[in-house]
Specification:
single chain; alpha+beta; two-stranded antiparallel sheet; 2 strands; globular
């Protein structure tokens, strides 16, 4: 899911989402990568540790 989608689903601004995802990435719970067809978008995905935290 791209960061913009995360923001829309959580009803957060782009700035809030960036900070939130930065903190989750620092804790090893998510990782970002550029979207293949449009590098302006960052795809955010849970890591193994992030998935384990949900269960």
């Amino acid at each position: 899911m791209c960061q913009a989608e995360v923001g829309r689903k959580l009803l957060k601004t782009k700035g809030n989402v960036s900070v939130m995802i930065d903190r989750l990435a620092q804790r090893g719970l998510v990782h970002r990568r550029p979207q293949e067809d449009d590098r302006r978008y960052m795809v955010v995905a849970l890591t193994g540790a992030g998935s384990a935290g949900i269960d």
